[in-house]
Amino acid sequence: MHDIQKLEVGSNVTSIGVSALSGQSYLVHVDLPDSVSSIGASAFIDAGVPNVNIPNSVTSIGDYAFACTTSNDYLKKVVFDGDAPATGLSIFSNVDPLSAEVYVHISASGFDVD
Predict the structure, then answer these.
(1) Quick count: other Cβ atoms within 10 Å of Cβ 76?
(2) Which of 28-37, 47-56, 63-72 has the lowest mean pLDDT?
């Protein structure tokens, strides 16, 4: 697979497959449309994307979807546009909790927010 820097997912795509963009360390922008309902296991593992918007349509995120096999200093911001999706194990494993921010809409449900 070639090094991808920007990805605009088509509006007819409903799922990001298992390991679909794993290892794409040059990936700096992903646009997920409202048609996407699931993000597969390890879909973005070791990818370089700094910001991710999870559309309201996403109902499931697989194990290690946004994880990194080493310390991840790429991922900085995650925005959930809707209610909490069902998630697998360690979807943000090795993401630095001191430098990454997660945003949830105030009306969203299913998140355990302190």
Answers:
(1) 15
(2) 63-72
Please tell me the predicted confidence (pLDDT) of residue 54.
96
- What is the per-residue pLDDT across 13-51, written as a single tens digit (0 to 9) for each? 999 999 999 988 888 889 999 999 999 999 999 988 999
Compute φ and ψ for 53, nearest 5 degrees.
-105, 120
Q: How far, rounded to the nearest angstrom, does the alpha carbon of residue 35 sit from its chain's CA centroid?
A: 15
Instruction: Domain of residue 7: give its range.
Output: 1-103
Number of separate domains in the chain = 1
80-108 CB burial, b ≥16 within 10 A, e <16: bbbebbeeeeebbebbeeeebebebeeee
CATH number at residue 47: 3.80.10.10
In this structure, is residue 1 part of a structural domain?
Answer: yes
pLDDT digits (tens, 9 = 90+) for 78-93: 999 999 999 999 999 9
d(CA 15, CA 3): 21
The span from the CA of 16 to the CA of 37, in Å, is 9
